[in-house]
Amino acid sequence: MTRLRTAALVGNPNAGKSALFNALTGARQKIANYPGVTVERRAGRLVMPTGEPVELIDLPGSYSLDAASPDEEVTRQVVEGEFPGEPQPDVLVVVVDAANLEQHLVFAQELVALGRPMVVALNMVDLAERDGLAIDPDALSAALGVPVVSTVAVRRRGLDELVDALGNAHDQDVTTRHEVRNLSLPERRLNARNMARGAILSESGQHRLHASLDKVLLHPWLGPPILFALLFVIFQAVFAWATPFADALDAAIGALIALANGALPPGILRDFIAEGVLTGVGSVVVFLPQIVILFAFILAMEQSGYMARAAFIMDRLMAYVGLSGRSFIPLLSSFACAVPGIMATRAIADPKDRLTTILIAPLMTCSARLPVYAVIIAAFIPATTVGGGVGLQGLVLFALYIAGILGAMGAALVLRRTATKGGSSGFIMELPRYQMPPLRDLAIGLWQRAWVFLRRAGTIIFTATVALWVLLSFPQAEPGESQLDASIAGHVADGLHVLVEPIGFNREIALALIPAMAAREVAVSALATTYAVDADDEEAEARGLIPQLRAGWSLPTALAFLAWFVFAPQCLSTIAVARRETNGWKWPAFMVAYLFGAAYVFAGLTYWSAAALGL
Ligand SMILES: Nc1nc2c(ncn2[C@@H]2O[C@H](COP(=O)(O)OP(=O)(O)OP(=O)(O)O)[C@@H](O)[C@H]2O)c(=O)[nH]1
Ligand SMILES: [Mg+2]
């Protein structure tokens, strides 16, 4: 008996492979209630009851071994042992959705026909039961000729049995499975229907509630306004609910700065800690509550199954600009961050669709823009309500998100007629069932997002801000001279200022844009640090960023700054991932050029029209 070394989770999209992977290995892979979440292979360690470790591999969902999209190709390669640098998995764990059995058995048969040792995880039996379906795993096992174990990945049910079956499967006799070999697709479909019918013990049919929900939510006229209204509420909440928490964080950071100023002797170290670290990085950290609120909504929409409906609703709009609804999920992920968004395009089969989606993904308002938008809104947009208790600040934030979406749609429209010309493919996406988001998963997801944000603050934002502080602090100014004028950074800013002055940007903005190439939030920390370094005395320094902005910027400048960040591709990670996903520099270079061009034009238009209106 040889030792079991590797096992791979395979199956249709949204079967719960990653949920099983997380439950078995303790990993924290992203799971969400729509197809196409996992787009690359991930390995983790599963410890068998004997104490032996097994490498468990989570794979992208797939409908067959004839790969249609880049993510499905990864699955095919791993399953067939062609993935570079990786041996063929010893055992396949085929994950099927119990409530969608007929459909999932089509691919399962293709896998069985490979004649490899395998176990079937009959997952989501809880949802099947909820829908009034009772399924007999033994009947299914007899029909497929492989062991079948019922599981509920999110409640950790059936995991021990699955692990046992996995251990035994390694020495399976695969010679008894000839009957399913070499069937055509229609034959497999027919077989799947028969097998599913044979395994279903009872069916009471309680799909009605969900069907009627979809009648409303997917209604051609009702669906879009409902989606729109929901997004509107989210942005209202981001401002309304976050304020007390943000104020408390702000006060805490203020207290830390006062503490540092009191405890340390005047000098370079104190300035470094107060101006560079606490003021700079702190100015970004205060936006944590807003980020958390935004993600609470996004995660709940993903887990409940509503997000896939949103893709369905958007499909028509997407078709107008030459994209399919398939692009919606990657674009939606880009609201968190364009990096996973661009990776999610691997689930798009058509190469031109995929390229277009990559090129427009950075226009979706990622969470790194939230601090930039929020600080300008807090400084320049009064916290009043307009008609019927709608908060003006939330409204402006909503408008900025819409501006990003419209920008992306406009860009797609142009690209599809020029650079990525070609017919657009049809929309095929199954709609997942609705379900209450598991609170535990929500909490884990939120914690992960908060942690990503804080880690960025501690690494990339910290580094860029400290580097800027050094350039701002040396050489030191003569008495009476402004520190900014004297510094190296000030001289660099003078050069760039010439370029951006026509679009209403001042020297501080010009300076902040340089380190903000690393990440957008750095624009905020850079401004905070610049004003703190340049402040004449401690009192001016302690006032914080928002009063400095109010005192130093005109409204047209502030609006132009917002318009700039709707478009500007200020994120090195996005550029890097675009290079990786398009295998070269051509498209990322194109992306950066067109986005900077658009940023310049739209910031300029905003500045000049605001100025003309006398704002
Ligand atoms: N109720 C219930 N929900 C489950 C179960 N397993 C997974 N889910 C949910 O089903 C959804 C899909 O789970 P994932 O693990 O992301 O599915 P996947 O097979 O990895 O999907 P792709 O990566 O897109 O191929 C998520 O919302 C999970 O919370 C289960 O046994 N019961
Ligand atoms: Mg997955």
Question: What this model shows, in words?
Answer:
- By secondary structure, this protein is of the alpha/beta class.
- The chain folds into two domains: 198 residues, P-loop containing nucleotide triphosphate hydrolases (Rossmann fold); 368 residues, no CATH class.
- Helix content is 60%, strand content 7%.
- It has 27 helices and ten strands.
- The strands form three sheets. It has a six-stranded mixed sheet, sandwiched between helices. It has a two-stranded antiparallel ribbon with strand order 6-8.
- β2 and β3 form a beta hairpin.
- α10 runs antiparallel to α18 and α21 crosses α22.
- The protein is elongated, with a radius of gyration of 27 Å.
- It starts with 5 loop residues before the first strand and ends with a helix.
- The relative contact order is 0.09.
- Bound molecules: guanosine-5'-triphosphate and magnesium ion (MG).
- Guanosine-5'-triphosphate (GTP) binds next to α1 and α4.
How far apart lie the N and C ends?
80 Å
Strand content: 5-15%
Taking all Cα atoms into account, the compactness measure Rg is 27 Å
Largest sheet properties: 6 strands, mixed
Range of helix content: 55-70%
> Average pLDDT value?
90
Question: Globular, elongated, flat, extended or rod-shaped: what is the shape?
Answer: elongated
Q: Count of helices?
A: 27
The beta-strand count equals: 10
Strand order of the largest sheet: 2-3-1-4-5-7
The unique ligands bound to this protein are:
guanosine-5'-triphosphate, magnesium ion
Low-confidence stretches: none
- Number of self-contained structural domains: 2
Protein name: Ferrous iron transport protein B
GO cellular component, one term: plasma membrane
Keywords: Membrane, Transmembrane, Transmembrane helix
Transmembrane segments: 216-239, 245-264, 276-300, 328-349, 370-390, 396-415, 453-472, 558-578, 590-610
